[in-house]
Design brief:
With 815 residues, the protein is of the alpha+beta class. Helices cover 23% and strands 28% of the residues.
Amino acid sequence: MRRLFQFFAAMLLLTAQLAVFAMPAGVQAAASTGYKDVPADHYAAKEIAKLSQKGIVEGTADGVFQPDEPITRGVAALWLSKALSLPKPASLNGFSDVAPGSSLAPAVNALKEKGVVQGDQGKFSPDALLTREQMASLLVRAFQLKDNGLNVWFKDEAAIGSSHYDDVVRLKQNFITEQSEYMPKNQVTRAQLVLFLNRAMPQSEQNGQEIPLTDFLRGSDRTGYDVSPNGKLTAYVQTYNNHNQLYVKKAGEDEGTRVTRLEKREIVGFFWFSDERIVYMTDLYGTENFHIHSVNADGTEDKDLTPFDGKRAELMDNISYLDGHEDDLLIRLNKISSRLFDVYNLNTKTGELKLVVENPGNVTSWLSDIYGRVRIAMATEGTDTKVLYRDKETGPFTPLLTASFGDSFIPVQFSLDGSELYALSNIGRDKLALVKFGLNTKQIIETIYENKDADVTDFVFSYKKKTILAVEYETDKLHYHYLDKEFEELNKEISDKLSGQQFVILGNPLPDTKVKLKTISDVSAGTYYFYNRKTKELEKIADVRPWLDKSKMAEMKAVSYSSRDGLTIHGYLTVPKGAEPKNLPVVMLPHGGPWLRDSWGFDPEVQLLASRGYAVLQVNFRGSTGYGKAFFNAGNKQWGQTMQNDITDGVQWLIREGIANPKKIAIYGASYGGYAALAGMTFTPDLYAAGVDYMGPSSLTTFLDSMPPYWEPDRGVMYARVGDPEKDKQMMDAYSPVLHVDNIKAPILFVQGADDPRVNKKESDQMVMALRKNGIDASYMIKNGEGHGFRSLDNRIDFYTALLKFLDNHLKNGN
């Protein structure tokens, strides 16, 4: 049961995109454009060669292209109609100054019928020279470029004609141009139109073999399968009208019935509370103010059990197995104070709440025993962590152990007799080990398992056998150290059936008959199975994201390199499918947290980038979890410093190995990864061709000033990890990108949820304003109704479309 709730808690914690796609080698090399007056180093050479090959643009009969000559409205219409593959128009008489017999008539009239061109008083003026603002309107209408929420800025916006202004904005929102001065009245040259046209053409016109963006972004038709205790019903999450909803189906049936009707809130996890009832958790617009709900399997009695605005509920334990608590859960809820979580008994039928224990003011987590009695409290005192304990449910909490800053002691579960604790501890050692702690002796009485290379992350417990079956740790991949022969043999049986493919058992680890499991892979989102222990047969339940062909996905490989000061840095390198790892455009993708780690497995964002021709490097820089406390604590107060050096050293490793084209490397990250992107662009400005900051802090000081209220008990720890705004002001200012925008040389794309509770919108606002104050443009996508990461499919499509266009402009296009 403990693992159920750990799993559930873990569940809480990429539009047509514009790309320059794979082209014939001769075109990619741009050794020759086929035109005498377009040298290989011309800024639009590749685009002219590509669109000429496609028959969309053409030069003159004597083999010249005249790239720098102004283009007429008529020729522009001809090229545009070819790019759109328009059918023959119904009429050739749309304009009085374009004769039906003119070579331009089919194109001009086809564009008129499509609503792309309008003319003036019945005339098209085909010989007039095309201006830049007119070009904007043509492209926006032709390719239906939308307002994607990107905040853009032009130094000369006052010069843009009112009838073209919105179109010029959309041109920039869609990265067809990134100029801070648009020069709207200037004439468009033939090369310029080719460049803009190439950028505007949708992917379907450029490469029909490319996997659509939405295939990577949309959630699985069905995911999160969970079977009722009696095995008769299966619940799953399925997208309905862009919202996750719960569905329930009977055993043997293919289609289920929708049992929820959510319109604003999004499901972030669920489990079967009983054979008839499901408990699920929702979030509102990414604010992380989670609510707990329950619903009957037939869709009746759907209730929000914690309907408190601005409050956050967290699951703690299912205690329905206890007499008198058949309908009850233990939950944590900050109802009394937004800063503090108290423990409540929650009735899943009536919604009745009963306060079990009130937070004295510094408790950050609670733990109950198998009888539902809250007996452990983890309290923060400055930077130390005190483990408080009480023998009886009604007694006072008294100190049991103090973990000094830098050490960790994490109680996970009580022993069945309640006299001992299973805990993860690195006190007196470097790696987190699974230990048994005596509540009476107040000391570690046994080290159950310790790994020399990595922290222990979890264990598998059997209530049937009343023992630990296996211990979990992660190096390159997830591994188990088995302590039970039966469980080890079961895992080997399943592994043989799956030809060695990795998997994880879900729910009861040793049921009498059916074992539920899910496969883990770098090239597949996984498959759910049942394994019948008696017949030794695998029964497939469903594939996750079955529309993604794993044969087209790229392998994720574990790599390592040495930092400049001698630490071994581990990470994962993904190279585009079928590509030689040589001289590739690269996206550095530092993880968020920063007190987390990247892991081997399927990552749709990484696969999207790889499918578009980018190698992706993810590194577990110092301060990442899983590699022991020395490595973790080496990141203390090192934002922008040695933590950033580890990322920089990863770039240099890629260059030394010949994997990366040193002129085509971008850094992109979210949350702390966004900060790392800004730090990379600011403190190593010659290293990156572009950067993307997705909801990252720009100032170490203002970031700490805007923490969510429930982080307040850990403020001292945050100061020790990031910096103290008073004692460390000079250091924090030195590594706050917003104070060093003068260093920035390459473009940055900013992305932010307006309701982000972790990294306030101010962090992006102030960085964008500082850049624009210096006359430097900064594209800035803001989405209302979004928090720390976009949940809406439409918003995610907008973001990843912009991301890919931005990266392509700076890592693929040009020389």
